[in-house]
Amino acid sequence: MTDAPVISALPAVAHSPARLALRRLLRHRSFRIGVILLLVLILAAVLAPWISNGKPNATSVRVRFTPPSWDYPFGTDNFGRDIWTRVLYGAQVSLWIGLTVAILSAIFGAIIGVCAAWFRRLDSLLMRVMDALMAFPAILLAMGVSAVLGPHISSVIIALTSAYIPRCARIVRASALVIREQDYVEAARIAGGSDLRIILRHILPNCLAPLLVTLTFIFAYAILAEATLSFLGIGTPPPHASWGNIVAQGRDFAIEAWWIMLFPGLAISIAALAINLLGDGLRDVLDPRLKIEG
Amino acid sequence: MTWLILRRIAQAVPVMLIVAILTFLLMKMLPGDPAILLAGEGADPDKIEALRRSLGLDRPLLVQLGYWLLNLVQFDFGISPFLNQPVSEAILERIPVTLSVAVVAFVMTLPVGIAMGVVAAYWRDSWIDTTVMSLALAGVSVPNFWLAILAVILFSVTLGWLPSAGYVPMREGFFPWLHALIMPAAVLALFQIGYLARMTRSEMLEVLDQDYVRTARAKGVTEVRTVSKHAFRNALVSVLTVSGYIFSLLVGGSVVIEQIFALPGIGRLLVQAIMARDIVVVQGSMLFLGFLFVAINVLVDILYTIADPRVNYD
Amino acid sequence: MSDTVLQVRDLAVSFRTDRGWVPSVDSVNFALKGREALGIVGESGSGKSVTALSLLRLHDPRNTAITGEVLWQKRDILAMGTRDLQRLRGREIAMVFQDPIHTLNPVLTIADQIGESLRIHQGLTGKAARRRAIELLDQVRIPDAARRVDDYPHRLSGGQRQRVMIAIAIACQPKLLIADEPTTALDVTVQAQIMELLRQLRQDLGMAVILISHDLGLVSEFADRVMVMYAGQPVELSPAEPLFERPLHPYSEGLLAAIPDLDSDLDRLPTIPGAIPEPTRRPPGCRFAPRCSYALESCRSQALPMLVAADGRAARCTRHIPERQVSDV
Q1: Domain ABC transporter spans what residues (chain C) (predicted)?
Q2: Taking the model in full, what pTM does it have?
Q3: Residues C112 and C11 reside in one and the same domain
């Protein structure tokens, strides 16, 4: 009698974790919706020069306050500027700032988080500073930094990045602390691996999943925060078209010329929605336990 | 337990110190000479020099920092040349407005956000879950300044139900006060409601899978009590942790909302000061808010200690 | 022995997974008399816990399908309304679970968790419930019960927590106690104490008990009858003593051979090579055939019902019961 199990007759399916995650992501409903919406927005931003009605700041007194029409799909503002064009160019600014802030926060946050977890003597100081920064809601911290640096796109980026670095640093530190206690890290250390090598080969790759999820949500928050700063007049300065400052401009005419503020506001909402959906998908698949504080 | 609370308060001191130092350094990064800025362009050089001396700007940075911290301990945030008023006084005048907005929004956020999260988790993957979570997602995606404008158009201009701007102090009656705050607070609350609903849902999903929930069912406990007592009490610990954080965000968000509804709170003070480059006020109100947030965190940690019996264990 | 209190007929359980409905347990048939102790034995994956939880419908109803009949004193638990079910749970049938670390609610006091059953089923509140809770803690031999009653579970050791679980279960003097691996998570000395406690309580309270365990040795010392399960089906149902002396199913034989490792946590049996097939990959014939050293060609192709021997013992194997006869146990 042989005792070969019957099971082996069935082919074993082997997949790498990354491919498995990708497959689960592509099956995730909200992830798919988010990706499609975001791609449409990115495409609109990139193609702005070709699908818009000319320059975003071109004024034309004759067509002031034109309601949405075939020629001006989103209408025009008090200077006769085409809102459709401004929203498209605004997409460039908003998406660019959002993505830059998210990536920079992740990079600096990862460096600080790993340093805090790896060099234990730095931990307490670094994390107290992060606590102090975290004490402020992001929007307030960004307002303070932006107030000091003056109204430039770069100061908005610096302001928001400094607000979101602590969130990334905390997430990375928490993961890194767990990983540094793993046997394989201990083994690498005994084998004489340098700190940098161990961090790059073992610690960082294992922090990537939670960091990626965090980064995605920061992308969404940053778009909202940039719009808020610009709305308050301390973000992207006019005449650069940004979704936030178009709404601010349209606010005075919100009743007579509702289209000026309506469409940029919708654009902000859709962008944030798309990225949040994408983030939900990433979180469900990569790191369901993760909690993120915006 | 008392020991734990005292320790937590002690831990907050260095964080507050760092907040103070960071605020100080931030303002030192300001381009240009603050004395000239305060005295106004083209002012008399003697006057600028006098101002510089009176502000202590001629002394080394560390000495300045020392004096500054010393003043802070005495709740002295300096005097604003624009308001012609001590900053601490200006803040104390305005803080009730900001706190009123935040508190009303907070009172709306907690029950609604928690209820949405619990309901969605209990009926997970059903149409109820999808509907509730879509609303929550909309809440965290729609910018509140934009929503505020739409709300004003609908409730003030079109329906005429609520005032579009202005604040009524509580001493003129609770209901007039509430009437003035309800729209700003509701707009402010929507984002946090969405956030809290999403958080509560994921927390509840985890708790509902725990063995002790099955134990409760095996005892014959009704579904309502299983969820509200056995499951929710456990989720409450995390909900409590974020609730302090939510309150901080509501105070922060109030800064924006005050602009739209013309509410004379700290946010309005801060934005006006930024516009006028009144650094004394910017510095003072940032610092005050920073201290407030640290204090809220301490309070939440203490509540957390009381809510979760496991924390006492040592 | 008194009359039959529980009669399980053709119980089958399926779970919904990513890949559709997967059958977990099927063809479970047994009866239990009042005060009787039945042991259900098998490796992990045999379906014994799934069966136990189905008796009180404790699986998540949204992704579980249970068919068949579970007749408790002539009423079908599977067809009961929610209200009736809640009235039954904890009062007539109570349950003790495997891992006492996670089965007690960490944020409620012991008084609260014991008192809850008393309040629901006996209307006891306040002081009366508390007094009864202390009595129950005494009964499960927790020292210093009057003080312990106000503690939170994290203050207690694993063994003590299991005693508290048992106190909760017996609070309303149930007629049937289902104990699902009650000692698996505990260390050996505590294990023996808990089993002794269960034996004592069974006698004092006159309960019927269903004891689920992977440990045939433990079960045989406790139970009057034993049901051995394999890959989602009962494969042998027999009084405890003869099962020990002469197992009818080769799987029971393997389990018996594994008994010396009383304190080992091994889920796999060293005496039987291989492992239980996953529910989606069960062989067409006898499910044990791939691991069976006696398997014949016919075993691999043809599934058997339970066969009843002349002495009333039943097994899903023709090796010792050559005469084919469908069981109606």
Answers
A1: 6-256
A2: 0.84
A3: no
